[in-house]
């Protein structure tokens, strides 16, 4: 679920209450060692067999979403974990195997890096906004 911003209206209040619960459910139920999976391969038959790695773009999206809903510490913690798994050149692949610590799939993956930039910006904005409250 890519992060989105919206201007809340009075009729969107139930949706705004549900968004944090859904994001925290993703963080709890669709992660492996804190990194986000596309889906649970054991529960979905998409053709290919076997386990796949966690998707770094999804993990960076979760960082952004956590920052947006005010979970700044969770966002920072996950961002720091993600930054620690960068390659020696500071690059990210499409997927990351949390068991082996190896990058999988396309390397380097531009979309992972775009999501990294977005996540960093969201954390910075959240920190700046909290200075005013």
Helix share, percent: 40-55%
Determine the strand fraction and express it as a percent band.
Answer: 5-15%
Give the number of domains: 1
Report the end-to-end length measured between terminal Cα atoms.
28 Å
Spatial order of the strands in the main sheet? Answer: 3-4-5
Q: Total helix count?
A: 4
Elements, N to C (H/E):
HEEEHHEEH
Given the helix and strand composition, which structural class is it?
mainly alpha
The geometry reads as globular
The biggest beta sheet is recorded as: 3 strands, antiparallel
For the secondary structure, the number of strands is 5
| Rg, Cα atoms, Å | 16 Å
Task: List segments where confidence is low: pLDDT < 50 over at least 5 consecutive residues.
Answer: none
- Overall average residue pLDDT: 84
Give an account of the 3D structure.
- The chain has one domain.
- Helix content is 49%, strand content 9%.
- Strands 3-4-5 form a 3-stranded antiparallel β-sheet.
- A hairpin with a 2-residue loop joins strand 1 and strand 2.
- The protein is mainly α and 133 residues long.
Q: What's the arrangement of secondary structure elements?
A:
Blueprint: H1 13-29, E1 31-32, E2 35-36, E3 54-55, H2 56-68, H3 72-84, E4 95-97, E5 102-104, H4 110-131
